[in-house]
Automatic annotation (TrEMBL):
Domain ABC transporter: 12-250
Family of the protein in this entry: Belongs to the ABC transporter superfamily.
Domain of life: Bacteria
SUPFAM superfamilies: P-loop containing nucleoside triphosphate hydrolases
PANTHER family: D,D-DIPEPTIDE TRANSPORT ATP-BINDING PROTEIN DDPF-RELATED, TRANSPORT ATP-BINDING PROTEIN
MF terms (GO), sorted A to Z: ATP binding
Keywords noted in UniProt: ATP-binding, Nucleotide-binding, Transport
InterPro entries: AAA+_ATPase, ABC_transp_ATP-bind, ABC_transporter-like_ATP-bd, ABC_transporter-like_CS, Oligopep_ABC_C, P-loop_NTPase
Organism whose genome encodes this protein: Nocardioides ginsengisoli
Cross-referenced Pfam families: ABC_tran (PF00005), oligo_HPY (PF08352)
Protein's recorded name: ABC transporter ATP-binding protein
Length: 261
């Protein structure tokens, strides 16, 4: 390209997005962002500012009122369940217990994904699931245990493996560690980093915890009241927040900011 920039399309491009529920006013407005291949972008903001709403639009679960969502340069418009783009964007949920069927084993849960997205036979899907669960660090003894018997961290590893079964281009992780014990949070964040590096996957990481955003991302955006109020280098944003809301956010955790300085 003449300007020397990469010829590869961003994995996710969101332009001028406006979205909301029913007849209520817009929940999010004028949201634009771009995520390059292999990049993790952080999204932070107060409760109710519209982070999950943006995630729903990116996942194709909520139709935007205005604007475009492109995945790998292709319009994310048709919400048909057969749309191959659906498999390109996967989600890791906040509450790993609630997101799994408690009666299915870890292997059965992930095998379901292989059958659904790759059309694998039951036996092949279980083999593939066991290999993937091993890769995400689930202990062998837990692979054939029902989800209801697993710890929160183990359930989240199953949730991650389930999302990875279709080799997504983009993982949307909505508060993936906020319901886990502090001791387990770092393990799951490191797992996500390892997988992102190993698979070249991109990630939109949603968190209200600035230390998580700091640890995981080099670029982040801050939302407030449904709009993006700051967007840029994570380190610069934490050192010198420009928007009053970002300043409030950073100042509310003085101990952590001092550690990062
Ligand atoms: N299904 C829905 N129907 C109607 N309103 C909704 C729906 N889901 C969310 N909202 C509203 O949209 C606004 C934004 O919610 P959203 O879940 O996107 O915020 P959030 O930033 O993810 O919050 P949190 O950090 O608490 O998860 C809130 O006022 C919420 O009540």
């Amino acid at each position: 390209m003449p300007d020397g920039s990469s010829a590869r399309a961003p994995v996710l491009e969101v332009r001028g997005l406006r979205a909301g529920y029913g007849t209520a006013p817009d929940t999010i407005r004028d949201v634009s962002l771009s995520i390059e291949p292999g990049q993790i972008v952080g999204l932070v903001g107060e409760s109710g500012c519209g982070k999950s709403t943006l995630a729903k639009v990116v996942l194709g679960l909520l139709r935007p009122r205005e604007g475009d969502v492109l995945v790998d340069g292709r319009r994310w418009g048709d919400r048909s369940s057969r749309d191959p783009l659906r498999s390109c964007v996967q989600m890791v949920f906040q509450d790993p217990y609630a997101s799994l069927n408690p009666k299915l084993t870890a292997a059965e849960t992930v095998a379901d994904s292989f059958r659904r997205w790759k059309g694998s036979s039951r036996r092949d899907a279980l083999d593939e699931a066991r290999r993937l669960l091993d890769r995400v660090g689930l202990p062998r003894t837990a692979i054939d245990a029902r989800a209801e018997r697993l710890s929160g961290g183990q359930c989240q590893r199953v949730g991650v493996a389930r999302a990875l079964a279709c080799e997504p281009r983009l993982l949307v992780a909505d508060e993936p560690t906020s319901s886990l014990d502090v001791s387990v949070q770092a393990q799951i964040l490191n797992l996500l980093l390892e997988l992102q590096e190993g698979m070249g996957m991109s990630m939109l990481l949603i968190s209200h915890d600035l230390s998580v955003i700091r640890y995981m991302t080099s670029e982040a955006m801050v939302m407030s009241g449904g709009a993006v109020v700051e967007h840029g280098s994570t380190a610069a944003m934490l050192r010198q927040p420009r928007h009053p809301y970002t300043r409030t956010l950073v100042e509310s955790i003085p101990g952590q900011v001092a550690d990062w300085a």
